[in-house]
């Protein structure tokens, strides 16, 4: 697991623990499973990585319902050990 610092939608700096990066079959999109500590809690999120015009990585929400289902299914398979991820 590695740590990175991100800027959230409120322009606050947050430390993020990257847990896993993966791609869906037949897709070039890269997804990331990560956690953010908020005081006494840790929240876990999944987003996709989008490159900005100036070359920075941006974490974007997955808004398409079908895409969300495919991502959740892939994560379930990864957690079961059915799929190898780097």
The number of helical elements comes to 1
Specify Rg, calculated over alpha carbons: 14 Å
Shape: globular
Which series of helices and strands comes N to C? EEEEEH
Question: Alpha-carbon distance between the termini?
Answer: 11 Å
Helix content: 10-25%
Mean pLDDT: 87
Please outline the major beta sheet: 5 strands, antiparallel
| Strand percent estimate | over 45%
Structural class: alpha+beta
Explained architecture:
- The protein has one helix at 65-80, and strands at 2-7, 13-23, 30-38, 41-51, 57-60.
- The chain is an alpha+beta fold and 86 residues long.
- A five-stranded antiparallel beta sheet has the order 1-2-3-4-5, with no helix packed on it.
- The relative contact order is 0.16.
- The mean pLDDT is 87.
Task: Considering the chains and any ligands shown, give keywords for the structure.
86 residues; alpha+beta; 5-stranded antiparallel beta sheet; 1 helix; globular
Draw up the topology in text.
Elements: E1 2-7, E2 13-23, E3 30-38, E4 41-51, E5 57-60, H1 65-80
Antiparallel strand pairs: 1-2, 2-3, 3-4, 4-5
Brief overview:
The chain is α+β, with helices and mostly antiparallel strands. The protein has one helix and five strands, in the order βββββα.
């Amino acid at each position: 697991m590695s740590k990175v610092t991100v800027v959230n939608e409120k322009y606050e700096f947050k430390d993020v623990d990257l847990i896993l990066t993966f791609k869906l079959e037949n897709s070039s999109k890269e997804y990331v499973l990560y956690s953010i500590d908020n005081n006494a809690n840790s929240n876990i999120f999944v987003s996709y990585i989008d490159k900005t015009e100036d070359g920075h990585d941006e974490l974007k929400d997955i808004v398409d319902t079908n895409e969300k289902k495919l991502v959740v299914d892939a994560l379930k398979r990864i957690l079961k050990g059915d799929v190898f991820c780097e």
